[in-house]
Amino acid sequence: MNSRHSTRHDAWQWPHGAKAAISLTYDDGNANNLDQAMHDLEAAGFRGTFYLQTAREDMQLRVADWRAAFGRGHEIGNHTVHHWCRAQPYIEKLGHAPAWMTRSLENVSPEEIATEITTAADWLDQHIGTDPDRTFAHPCGALAIGVEPDEASYDAAILQRHFAARTCLTTVNHPTTVQMLRIGGFVGQGADARPVIKHCEAAHAIGGWTVLIFHGIGGPTHTFERAAHQEVVAHLRAQDYWVAPLKTVGRFVEAGQRANARVAVGDK
Ligand SMILES: [Zn+2]
Q1: CA 179, CA 190: separation in Å to the nearest integer?
Q2: N or C: which end of the chain has fewer CB within 10 A?
Q3: Total number of domains constituting the chain
Q4: Distance from the CA of 27 to the center of ligand 1, in angstroms?
Q5: Centroid of ligand 1 to alpha carbon of 122 (angstroms)
Q6: CA of 70 to the centre of ligand 1 (A)
């Protein structure tokens, strides 16, 4: 490896001279995302990514508000129709699959996962608006169908409609190497903003991209407290981060990786 190579890889630059990229994502279509999280984001001039599970009835009741949020620049992403996950991790932990899990991915065929994803994508096109950059988030972070884990069929189904997908891997994503279907995210829970801020600072230290995953903001269980959410937003606003929806950072990273690949080929 000569110095020209290391210079090229070290020279990754985020827009506006930012030291790191941060994407704030919110899963499942909780109403408090509309009423609380978006308010905090917009007060700071930020836009987030909101992954909707399209069969959820309480989400559908607010469809006009979700559509308006898309119009204001938030990403409204695909989180499937039914939120199927793998049962095995729950059976190991609880002794049974949770009641909300209507199907387990162990028993889903390649055709069925493709229908599950494209049906949700169609619903979003029709009710929210078309978006060629719309991304996907894996329910429960589960990457495979089948008893013998089959990730290739799940990936192929996503690629029919989406260029990028978010998982629950907790690493800071490195822009030169992250794969578009394996973008890792960190789940923020409870009342403490510090673990979330730590993952943002970790990205800042290496010029990386941290994706934050939230569910309800300010709601009862498995959620992140409103005050902690506001503390995270204040931290992001005070430092030189590029805060943008997952699709926006994803397209930027994709283009940068392509440019690097062209330079590498040209070197030979
Ligand atoms: Zn979910």
Answers
A1: 29
A2: C
A3: 1
A4: 5
A5: 19
A6: 19
- 2 in any annotated domain: no
How many A from CA of 28 to the centre of ligand 1? 5
| 9 in a structural domain | no
Query: Is there a domain that residue 6 lies in?
Result: no
* Closest C-alpha among 191, 164, 190 to residue 175: 164
In 3D, which of 37, 73, 24, 31 has the Cα closest to residue 52?
Answer: 31
CA of 53 to the centre of ligand 1 (A): 7
Q: pLDDT digit string (tens) for 4-51?
A: 444 444 578 999 999 999 999 999 999 999 999 999 999 999 999 999
Residues of the domain holding 47: 19-267
Distance 19 CA to ligand 1 centre (A): 30
Residues 6+ apart with CB under 8 A from 71: 129
In this structure, is residue 7 part of a structural domain? no
pTM above the 0.85 mark?
Answer: yes
CATH number at residue 24: 3.20.20.370
Structure tokens at 142: 């589960």
Q: What is the pLDDT of residue 220?
A: 67
